[in-house]
Amino acid sequence: MALQPSEGDPGTGQSDHLPPTPLIIPEIQLPFAAAPPRSDSEPLRTQALAWAQRYGLIGRRGAHRLSTTALLELGVALCARAPTPRAEILVCWYLWALTLDDRIDDGPWAENGALDRFIIAVQALTESGDADPSGEISRFDDPMLVVLADDLWPRTQCLGGDHWRHRLVQHLIQHLRAQATLVRLREADRSLTLAEYLPLRRDSFGALFFFDLIDAAETLDPYEHPAHTEWWSTLREHAADMIAWTNDIHSIAKDVVCGERFNLVSILANTRGIGWPAALESAHQMVNTAVAQFTVVAARHANQRRTAATDPDRLSQVVRAAADWHRSVSRYHLQTTDASAQDNRQVDLKLTPPTLKSRQFEIDPYPLYERLRTTLPIVYDEPTDVWLVSRHVDVKAVLTQPGVSNNNYSWQIGPLLGHTIVTMDGCEHAQHRALLSPAFRSQALVALEASITSVTTDLLAHMHGRSQVDLIADFTAALPVRVMARALGLPAQTLEEVERLKRWCAVGFAYMGNYRQDPALLTGGLSNRDSFYDFIQPHIDARRAEPSDDLISQLLAARIDGQPLSETFVRSYCAILMTAGSETSHGALANLIVNLLSEPGVKEAVMANPDLMDNALTETLRRNPPLQLVLREARESLQLPSGTIPAGATLACLIGSANRDPDQFIDPDTFNMSRTEQATSHFAFGAGRHFCLGSMLARMEITISARMLLQTFPNMRWAPGFTPTERGFLNRCPEQLEVVL
């Protein structure tokens, strides 16, 4: 039975509206010859990857991903007959565009006008060489602008003459503006008619821009003779449409599951009132029509005096290369079963997993978790190259098995801080953990408790006399930063000092959780680390000369195998303790406050019996953990209760899902402070050998501050018209907590 549009928008990605039978992706047979393979394809790939890493477009994980998959194959195929130096520029452009497309598709970066500002900078740079005449975007804030200004555009602009350069820039800006238009339409939740979509799709894919690059790379100018302008432009438009529509057909599974509504197949289903199979066939027919139109236009001008520049085979080979790439590249084949054991054209959307790159994980991941636990408990997420583990029994097995390592942190945090306790395993990890543990146990906690009380008292005092406050800005974000700064011996009294530390911690935490591999975080994290290290170095030097009772002094005095910690270790441990000790504690405290004020009877019960605050926090950590997942790496093939993980795989342990597994917790979505034997089996602090070192400090910090908050402002309630909303995935909590005191 075909899904009719009345049953739900084909682009919603909700499992309730997925077709009950598998879809058959049409076999797109193009009557075009393939271009001959290039002998320098491997050096082209290697050079492009080194270039992208050098400028911060990709990190270690991105480079590995691109070097072990076919994602760069299309970029190499576009080079056609271009000499190697010019082909290198074209492949770099392809990688730049691929990075930008993923950045736009995968997350919030492009929203709220950010992409429009980026386009202004690109246009100014390519037209005048000034990356940002308005000052709205510093040319050094975004690595994609930096590489464009410092390398890519200077190498590109000399490939052709003024007319070619003008056409190239025009098509580049058209490409970017079309993408920005689609972003705005998504934000406004607007639909598109087919007539509106088609020109937007042609421009948003960027084929016309790459046709210009190919012309210059091959040192050919098809527009040299005015008589060729109209028919060659028409030919290029047909070629661009074939490529874009082929992409939509192969993207249908990915787009539907990710909630992407702007796909030719989805729009045909909605606007024509037809089901999925008919919409797929209609899209296929549109491709065939474009092929026929291309062939007719090419034949009509066969008798004209042609040059190498106006040979239709040049365009048809690019179209064929794009079709072959879409048919083979893994990002368009997201089925859970082994592709070699099934028809690669058959797509069952119920067996197509949601990807961590989907914005829905940041907005509301819990329906996705339920679908994963029920249907796909262990499944490969191709776009992020990780295995999603969603059931409680499987997450527990991963976090406690000896065959699982922390080697994933070698790319998550290694480029930033080097080899630290978070990347260690085995005896080395045990030694360093034993070194740090005393700072968060027994007598050390007594001193930390006094600090927590002092900082909380000060923050509450600043709220007195105010009728309404935002507890995120005025309480939850500042508290753990100030407590950890005091423990380390760093200044955090003034608003400026606290804000600076908060900013450093937020960027460092975001770098560690950069699953989307956003270039701004890759480069911003490194500069953020350097400024933090510059800040703490005088304090390290001072404690070396005159030790105190703070953590920096303890780190300097520590010995492993009789040797002191290196300066690199001391600095990195300061960064880890500062960041880990602030971001998730802030999120947990914020989520606890939401439950105290929103769950019926909870606030009153805790005020009547302050000891219940521990129960309220435990249930908050279970139901609303701020950290929704942790990654691990399989040293060997893992046999988990729900399936097998291959050796070498990266695993995403979905804590937020495991903590709401109905097989472990009765009525798991309900906040229930009375849970007893089940209460401590949540994974908000992890499990096994890497159980959170600062868990006791975090619990003490959150419960003390929350008790004091309620005692000081017993009538506290939500501000009129305000409703707290959880957001985020790396650190999931409300962005604001507007309360009346």
UniProtKB/TrEMBL annotation:
InterPro entries found in the cross-reference section: Cyt_P450 (IPR001128), Cyt_P450_B (IPR002397), Cyt_P450_CS (IPR017972), Cyt_P450_sf (IPR036396), Isoprenoid_synthase_dom_sf (IPR008949), Terpene_cyclase-like_2 (IPR034686)
A Pfam family matched in the record: p450
Region (Disordered): 1-20
An example Gene Ontology molecular-function term: monooxygenase activity
Family (UniProt): Belongs to the cytochrome P450 family.
PANTHER family: P450, PUTATIVE (EUROFUNG)-RELATED, PULCHERRIMINIC ACID SYNTHASE
Record protein name field: Cytochrome P450
Source organism: Pseudomonas gessardii
